[in-house]
Amino acid sequence: MAYFIFEIGNTMFSSHEDMKGSWKVFLIFAVAVIAVYLLGIKITIQNEALFEAIKKANIYLLWPIVIDGALLGFFKVLSTSLQKAEH
Q1: Dist CA 72 CA 70 (whole Å)
Q2: How many Cβ atoms from other residues are within 10 Å of residue 68's Cβ?
Q3: Which domain covers residue 24, as residue numbers?
Q4: Cβ within 8 Å of residue 68, ≥6 positions away
Q5: What pLDDT, on the 0 to 100 scale, is given for residue 47?
Q6: Mind giving me the DSSP string for the chain?
């Protein structure tokens, strides 16, 4: 199960090509969120099972980000150390 979550988490990120037109979607989403906020509309999740599923998904999908961040940090330190050793 952990491998399954890790694999999905690492393959769900969009490529640079996928992100080219995404600014339009983000802009529309931001305008909609600001409009809802300014109009004072409160959106709540009434379904407790859905709310719990969303909370679990957030926790599970956080792990690939943490692992990738740790690996990037490790290799950055390793790369810096190797460069200093060469000079």
Answers
A1: 5
A2: 14
A3: 2-10+18-86
A4: 10
A5: 84
A6: -HHHHHHHHHHSSPPTTTTTTHHHHHHHHHHHHHHHHHTT-------HHHHHHHHHHHHHHHHHHHHHHHHHHHHHHHHHHHHHHH-
Among 4, 9, 18, smallest CA distance to 58 is for 9
- What is the reported pLDDT for 59? 87
Q: Which of 8-22, 24-38, 66-80 has the lowest mean pLDDT?
A: 8-22
CB 5 within 8 A of CB 61: yes
